[in-house]
Amino acid sequence: MKYFLAAAIAILMTAAALAQTASLPEIRSLAQQSRYQEAYDRLESYLKRRPGDEQGRLLKGVLLTRLDRIDEAIDAFRDLAGDKPGLPEPYNNLAVLYAAQGRYDEARQALETAVALQPGYGTARENLGDIYARLAHLEYMRAYEIDGTNTRALDKANTVVNLFDRISRNTARIEPVPEPEPIMASARPKPPAPTPVPVPEPAPVSEPAPASTPAPMPPPLASAGDAVECFGVSGLSDEGDAAAVAAWFEQRGVNIISGMREEKEFLNFQVYSPPLESRAEARALHDQMKAAGIKDIALIYKGELSNGVSLGVYSTETNAQRRMTLLEQMGYEIEYRHRSRTRQVPFVEATALEGLVNQEAFSQAFPNQPLVRISCI
Known about the structure:
Structural class: alpha+beta
CATH superfamily of the largest domain: Tetratricopeptide repeat domain
Number of strands: 6
Low-confidence stretches: 1-19, 167-171, 177-226
Distance between the termini: 104 Å
CATH topology of the largest domain: Serine Threonine Protein Phosphatase 5, Tetratricopeptide repeat
CATH architecture of the largest domain: Alpha Horseshoe
Mean pLDDT: 77
Number of domains: 3
Radius of gyration: 31 Å
Order of helices and strands: HHHHHHHHHEHEHEEHEHE
Number of helices: 13
Largest sheet: 6 strands, antiparallel
Helix content: 40-55%
Strand order of the largest sheet: 3-4-2-5-1-6
CATH class of the largest domain: Mainly Alpha
């Protein structure tokens, strides 16, 4: 009787275990519903029965990533890459996680392995382009920090940052193999692939007006008590834009002033460790930080922060503050600053009798240069 009872209990336990074991498509379905913990628990049971299943092991790393168990996810992908060295997907997924931790060289190596294994692996190639862009940005900034007069390097670095801002940050992809139902796992904001910056076309040269075209009437003179309104034009990229806008006003008898003026242009937020007394002390701090695993750092050789350590530049103040807080928690004295530069920009301002300027007609003629009311004082 006791033997029979034990056997019955064993059968019931086996049945319960089987009930908890789902198929891989069912587990993927749970993950797509964001039920990651449940999907992971089911996958663990699945892998106990099929420990060599490649798709299951790859999915395990994806789910661990979704559960924010990043170190375990990295171990899962490493183990799979070690057991299946001809499989490219684990290398792609490792690269995404490395990039999220600022380990760009390791990410590059992993992605180069992935595309060597499968040259047609588009996702890995896109991610590799992103990593090259991030590495290029770091080198541009290091060049500028070494020589503060090298504005070409700074312009290139800012071009890359602007591309990061314009393109979705959630593009790094972690994928199971093959891709019947790809599960996306986002890394920390990752640099998208840079796209070529188009060379501006030269402004077209206006044809001379036919002889039969009457000359424009002189601007009407406002007498005391006449109501006037004033406008400014924004979005002027160059003097060609300003000339076209000025001509539009003058043809309608509107008084204008135009020219060039200085304007502050935002660049970025720089995180840094304040300057030390000597280059030797700064070098020692730089090496200590690097040994502690801190990435994206460079010694500052020139300028007001000479003998400081640059710890990255960021397009938003929130990201700069996050970086500063993380480093302060590691025991370092950290600051950040807003960086801008002065540049010459064209402007056009108009003063006209009230009702003379047709704002709708202006918007149709210049859709990229908004017309705004300004004070006439």
